[in-house]
């Protein structure tokens, strides 16, 4: 066979491949997979774009549970409890948690607010 030239993947292809690996991580293992994907991609901008798209989908599809500070309750990160972007409702306590999807924790600036009735 003739020597074939290897072609470089486009940025979109790299992002799509990174997203695929993140979205297909085993339950509870996405943080470990993300470390390796970030090392392989070796480009912070491309990794951040892939992660910002993949993590919210992964978190909602796996219905991750996050405990609120102070033990006031837990929030399930699901499409059913999603209010706006990164805000999720805990119906038991009527709190809205602001989630950092990539770190899988509450945002430090504004971790919750009460639902206004």
From TrEMBL:
Gene3D superfamilies: F-actin capping protein, alpha subunit. The keyword GTP-binding does not apply. GO terms for biological process: actin cytoskeleton organization; barbed-end actin filament capping. InterPro entries: CapZ_alpha (IPR002189), CapZ_alpha/beta (IPR037282), CapZ_alpha_1 (IPR042489). One of its GO terms (cellular component) is F-actin capping protein complex. GO terms for molecular function: actin filament binding. SUPFAM superfamilies: Subunits of heterodimeric actin filament capping protein Capz. The keyword Isomerase does not apply. Keywords: Actin capping, Actin-binding. Pfam families: F-actin_cap_A (PF01267). Transmembrane segments: none annotated. F-actin-capping proteins bind in a Ca(2+)-independent manner to the fast growing ends of actin filaments (barbed end) thereby blocking the exchange of subunits at these ends. Unlike other capping proteins (such as gelsolin and severin), these proteins do not sever actin filaments. Heterodimer of an alpha and a beta subunit. This is F-actin-capping protein subunit alpha.
């Amino acid at each position: 066979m003739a020597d074939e030239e290897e072609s470089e993947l486009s940025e979109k292809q790299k992002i799509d491949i990174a997203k695929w690996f993140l979205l297909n991580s085993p339950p509870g293992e996405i943080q470990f997979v993300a470390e390796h994907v970030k090392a392989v991609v070796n480009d912070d901008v491309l990794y951040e774009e892939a992660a910002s798209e993949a993590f919210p989908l992964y978190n909602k599809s796996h219905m991750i549970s996050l405990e609120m500070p102070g033990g006031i309750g837990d929030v399930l990160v699901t499409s059913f409890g999603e209010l706006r972007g990164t805000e999720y409702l805990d119906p038991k306590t009527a709190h809205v948690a602001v989630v950092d999807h990539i770190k899988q924790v509450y945002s430090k600036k504004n971790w919750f607010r009460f639902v206004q009735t």
